[in-house]
Write a structure and sequence with these properties.
eight-stranded parallel sheet; 955 residues; alpha+beta
């Protein structure tokens, strides 16, 4: 047992050393003593792929290579070239790249290109050693000394000279090593071994904390990297618990004392707001005695008469300065916090007692330029700024936890965050079955809450994503109960997606969405006639706590090949290069931008339908998109209206998106989207409102415009006060349509208190004049049709669904929506297409108003059709309506095309325009438009096709 030093002697010794350090220590620019050694810059380095370093005692050697830190091996150009044998971290469900001939050229050395995800310039899996010489001043001999690594990936072992300090393996928080007993004044060799392999702790190979699907499985150290000397009595960590009702903050302080005896000290607490209008708060002083080793202190800090509350509209933050004064020794912490209370009220969330609705997206550690997450506040401020411009107020961190800078940026931006404990325990990993991950999840969650728990943006915590395991429900129930009892500052659930248990503060479930995994063409959006009058009331009626819909959307868009040049960092879009090659190979390279814009418009329409369904559901708590920006992994999932760099793609802006995704959104319940002009429009109008307060005495106005922007109808609904919540009924729009004489695309716009939302819908004449007297309308290319063509006649061949041969397009699963996630990762889930591309000025569509992309009037056609592979007929065909194929196959697909056959002229429609036509006004109108065109002089096909080519299309 070491001998205790008398307290008076200890104080005198501290004072003497403090005076001596001014002459012995290097001073900074302000003339103050440096108690921090910045470790950024050049380090010595060596990889250890064969695991020889431990046995070879490399910590005793001078390493020869060089790298710069903060950074990774990849940012330093270290590692192996990508090959067919690269030991990736992450599932590859579609293995065709490894064996199919079409990818053979991409498997050759010097031209390796993988389609699974963004491709790093170098790759390394294993241990690597980093080394630096440091010099410790004399004054540090009596201080507590720490090595601070803001983020290491991931198992990190530290040596000082030949002494092993220890190992840490947090994926979510800073790794801090106590060097007090080993660092004396003088020169020392600091050696750090970093290992990025999955070993006994398996968080799941697809976890975004480690997976190549997004941030890459990098090896290195990023963020702040330093050694710091602190006073012998120092602040270990702090927990701030706001109480908005009592206008105070319960301040809990844990201190450490290496002096070996009790020390009397003074703790100062002072909260400051950066809002100049905030009330000035007084410093509170407390005399305490810090016991040897560790002590705990708690105080209620008064926040004045009117503390500024924190929420998405008013992200008011305070900084609590905590000073521990021990005579001449001083230790300080400045901690951001906010006066907020994130709770539940029945089936909805509340912020400071007011209902709120989560409008969220995911962040899956997607950082294409570095391959690892940003650790600076400005980068994260940009992300939240863009997300807010699209009407969002929430981000879920899928199977990882971001650095502190993300929390600070969210604090300042007013975002509600769901954080997860670095795990997706699935596909080779499980939880609750006694494996080391079970304890790791608890350890990781406690580190996360300890380091980031004071941030007001940190509102929700889950174990991670979509778990597997025989005992997962029991394990996660205990996990939720543990945290509910331990810390009430946020809400807790089991896992993102499942399981749902009564103990959770809120549910996360994929049930309330318009397309489910594996549902294909049986989903709401592909199975049922278009409308905007459905919601998720039935789905959530069985729950008494809030329900958040899990990973809604997943609607794809065509690749934007202009992005390729933007990947200037450690990752390259080789996947896009493969897809671009395929498009060019099929003679469609000139259509790349058109495919992007047309599929993007359909994607936006699908997201609008998805989000509005959530907003229409009374008592619903919120949604989490997958994703507002592209997910570059899992076979390339182009589900974002933004690219991985958080840039828009040119087909929808934040201003447009935020009309249907915002705190206040007008909503219209269309029973259908296509009408006849002998009908009356009857549309219930409601609003979802989660603003700062009820809207008083609001008069809702509406207007209907045609495609030329001319107002055809308008009106007002009765004035009312709009409460907080969704499902509030504003009235009904009733409007006869008899004055609309021509087929029309119309737009209804509803304005509620300055908030606008719009819907496209369509009106066709109930009675159409006869057309196509000299046209043979048939569903079979029979003898009569062939004779008609040989005689110079006109034939309109409208095919029944299922009559096109598989090899000619019959195997292409056509639906109205765009591709869900992607075909590679979903085992070819339908649909396989991304909508249509059409020339809206083509005379064949003069009586069927259309834009260049899919809108609701095309739902019927897409639901009654097969695609036709045009190259099986002729490479020269220019279809009237083109179908956009999956970017992986990039085939030239048509829905309607025209050609010369024999002496005659033919239109082939792979849309069935006859079956049950009396129930399909769109089919009647499209058929009429084609017939009018065929009756006109404009019907003059250029491409001549042998009749056998047409016959060969069919079963």
């Amino acid at each position: 047992m070491r001998k205790r030093i008398p307290y008076l002697f200890l104080v005198c010794f501290f004072c003497l050393c403090s005076n001596l350090t001014y002459t012995q220590d290097k001073l900074n620019k302000k003339g103050k003593i440096q108690f921090k050694i910045d470790l950024s810059g050049e380090w010595r380095f060596i990889p250890d792929s064969l695991d020889k370093g431990y046995a070879g005692q490399w910590y005793n050697k001078i390493l020869k290579d060089k790298v710069d830190l903060p950074g990774s091996m990849t940012t330093n150009g270290k590692g192996e070239d990508i090959s067919v044998n690269t030991p990736w971290t992450g599932s590859i469900l579609d293995s065709t790249w490894f064996k199919n001939n079409e990818y053979a050229k991409y498997r050759k050395p010097g031209n390796i290109k993988v389609p699974f995800w963004l491709q790093p310039i170098k790759y390394y899996k294993g241990a690597a050693w980093y080394q630096k010489t440091i010099t410790i001043p004399v004054s540090w001999n009596i201080k507590h000394i720490e090595l601070y690594i803001e983020r290491s990936h991931w198992e990190t072992t530290v040596w000082i000279d030949d002494k092993e300090i220890g190992m840490q393996n947090s994926l979510s928080t800073a790794q801090i090593f106590d060097l007090t007993n080993e660092l004396k004044s003088g020169s020392h060799q600091l050696t750090i071994r970093v290992d990025n392999r999955v070993k006994e702790i398996n968080v799941g190979q697809n976890s975004h904390s480690i997976s190549d699907h997004t941030q890459t499985n990098w090896n290195g150290m990023i963020g702040e990297l330093y050694i710091i000397a602190r006073t012998p009595v120092y602040i270990d960590h702090v927990e701030l618990c706001p109480d908005i009702k009592e206008k105070k903050v319960i301040t809990k302080i844990w201190t450490k004392n290496i002096a070996g005896m009790p020390v009397k000290t003074v703790i100062d607490l002072a909260a400051v707001s950066d809002n100049t209008k905030a009330e000035k708060l007084k410093t509170q002083k407390y005399e305490v005695t810090v016991s040897p080793d560790s002590s705990f202190f708690e105080a209620a800090y008064p926040m004045g008469n009117k503390p500024l509350l924190w929420d998405e509209f008013h992200p008011n933050i305070y900084s609590m300065k905590i000073t521990l004064n021990d005579h001449n020794a001083k230790d300080e912490k400045n901690i951001l916090f906010g006066m907020r209370e994130f709770k539940t009220d029945g089936t909805q969330f509340t912020i400071n007692g007011r209902k709120t609705f989560l409008r969220g997206t995911l962040e899956c550690a997607i950082f294409p330029l570095t391959g690892y997450p940003a650790t600076d506040v400005s980068s994260w401020m940009h992300i939240f700024r863009v997300a807010k411009s699209y009407g969002l107020n929430h981000i879920r961190f899928h199977s990882w936890c971001p650095p502190d800078a993300a929390f600070e940026a969210a604090d300042r931006s007013g975002f509600y965050l769901q954080v997860e404990c670095a795990s997706w325990a699935n596909d080779g990993a499980t939880i609750g079955d006694g494996a080391p991950i079970d304890q790791y999840i608890y350890d990781e969650s406690q580190k996360i809450v300890r380091d980031y728990g004071n941030h007001p943006s940190f509102c929700m915590l889950a174990y991670g994503n979509e778990p597997a395991g025989k005992n997962l429900t029991e394990y996660l129930t205990a996990f939720v109960n543990f945290w509910k009892q331990k810390d009430s500052r946020r809400l807790y659930t089991t896992g993102a997606g499942w399981p749902i248990i009564a103990e959770s503060n809120y549910n996360s479930t994929p049930d309330p969405r318009i397309q489910h995994w594996g549902e294909g063409l049986k989903s709401i959006i592909n199975r049922e006639n278009p409308s905007t009058n459905f919601d998720w009331s039935t789905s959530i009626s069985k729950y008494t706590n809030p329900t958040v819909s899990h990973e809604i959307g997943q609607w794809c868009v065509y690749p934007d090949f202009k992005e390729i040049k933007k990947y200037t960092g450690v990752l390259r879009a080789r996947n896009f290069e493969i897809f671009q090659d395929k498009l060019k190979q099929n003679g469609l390279g000139h259509l790349a931008d058109s495919f992007l814009l047309a599929s993007g418009k359909l994607q936006s329409l699908c997201y609008k339908a998805e989000i509005e369904a959530a907003l229409r559901t009374p008592g619903f708590a919120g949604f989490q998109l997958l994703d507002i920006h592209d997910f570059p992994g899992q076979g390339t999932a182009l589900v974002g209206v933004l690219n991985p760099l958080w840039e828009d793609k040119g087909y929808i802006t934040g201003k447009e998106y935020s009309r249907f995704c915002n705190a206040t959104v007008p909503l219209a319940r269309f029973p259908k989207m296509v009408y006849l002009n002998n009908e009356e429009l009857q549309i219930p109008v409601e609003v979802a409102h989660f603003g700062t307060m009820p809207l008083k005495n609001i008069t809702t106005t509406w207007e209907i415009k045609n495609s030329h922007g001319r107002i055809l109808f308008n009106g007002k609904l009765s004035a009312t006060t709009i409460p907080m919540g969704n499902g509030f009924k504003l009235g009904e729009i009733k409007q006869p349509l008899a004055t609309i004489k021509v087929p029309s695309k119309l737009t209804l716009t509803i304005i509620v208190g300055g908030h606008k939302n719009s819907w496209d819908w369509f009106v066709y004449p109930a009675l159409l004049p006869q057309a196509g007297k000299d046209i043979l309308l048939t569903q079979q290319l029979n003898e009569e049709a062939i004779d008609k063509l040989n005689e110079g006649g006109k034939v309109l061949l409208t095919l029944k669904r299922g009559t096109v041969k598989k090899e000619n397009g019959g195997s292409v699963a056509v639906g109205f929506s765009s591709i869900f996630w992607n075909t590679a990762w979903t085992d070819g889930q339908a649909p396989h297409t991304l909508g249509i591309l059409v020339n809206p000025k083509h005379p064949a569509l003069k009586q069927f108003p259309t834009d260049y992309y899919s809108n609701w009037q095309w739902w019927d056609a897409m639901s009654h059709s097969n695609a036709i592979i045009l190259d099986s007929v002729s490479k020269n065909l220019k279809p009237i309506v083109r179908v956009i194929d999956d970017w992986v196959t990039a085939r030239s697909l048509g829905l309607i095309f025209e050609c010369k056959v024999g002496k005659g002229k033919l239109i082939v429609s792979s849309v069935d325009l006859l079956t049950d036509a009396e129930k399909r006004p769109e089919a009647i109108q499209l058929l009429y438009s084609l017939e009018i065109y065929m009756d006109s002089k404009e019907f003059s096909p250029e491409t001549k096709i042998d009749v056998n080519k047409i016959l060969n299309l069919l079963q």
